[in-house]
Here is the input.
Amino acid sequence: DKFPELSFAVGLHPLDVDKWTPQMAAQILSLASADSRVVAIGETGLDFYKAKNQQEQKAIFKEQLAIAQQLNLPVIIHCRDAAAEMAKLLQNFWDSNGSVRGVMHCWGGTPEETQWFLDLGFYISFSGIVTFKSATQVKDSAAMVPTERLLIETDCPFLAPVPKRGKRNQPAYVRYVAECVAQLRGVPTETIAHQTTHNACELFGLELPSNSIDNEAA
Here is the structure.
């Protein structure tokens, strides 16, 4: 309530599934239903890096997908070392329950994996990882995502982009992600800024900033 201008998402991260209780699904549903500032369910998903609780992660992720579908909200998906399992789970959920819209958050997948989620209708969001010299496949993915499905982010306080790598990340550093993605795609940074702003507003049901509307009208 201190910052009424902010929108947010609610959900349980896969690294926190040990905190899940039978009541938590109802709590997420209640909060997301009661507050119009909730624009998504998440961050949720699968994180199989050194994980021994993969089945628990899948079950809790599916519960949150069902909430997103019930409320017609997008889902913010975390996917680490689990792209094939994620694509299979989402396809099975789609086949049984119908589709859910959303975004692959802080994406680090190959172009082939990226295409799996584009085919499922998802947006793809790139973080500071895309600026790292070693992230060649992520760079290739950023170059091939259709303009209307492209998003950028910081994932702060983690993964600060070059030239701020190693420092505490912050929202202002999204400009470096935009600059890198623009270079990879051979377009002006302003084009990436305007398009990703438009895409984010489209996905999360937000109102376009007035300066973006003015620029589009011009």
Remarks:
- The two ends are 36 Å apart (CA to CA).
- Residues 213-218 have pLDDT under 50 and may be disordered.
- The chain has two domains: 1-100, 102-207.
- The longest strand covers residues 38-47.
